[in-house]
Amino acid sequence: MSNVDKEYDQYVYWISANIL
To answer: What is the mean pLDDT of residues 1-20?
Structure first.
């Protein structure tokens, strides 16, 4: 569960960086 959360966080961060 923790691993998935971390991966999801990275995914969201990557998208945020792309949007910016």
So the answer is: 90
Amino acid at 20: L
CA dist., res. 2 & res. 19, Å (int): 26
Cα 13 to Cα 3, 6, 8, 17, distances in angstroms = 15, 10, 8, 6
Q: How far apart are CA 5 and CA 20, in angstroms?
A: 23
Q: Distance between CA 20 and CA 6 in Å, rounded? A: 21
Token pair for 17: 């960086």
Single pTM value for the model:
0.30
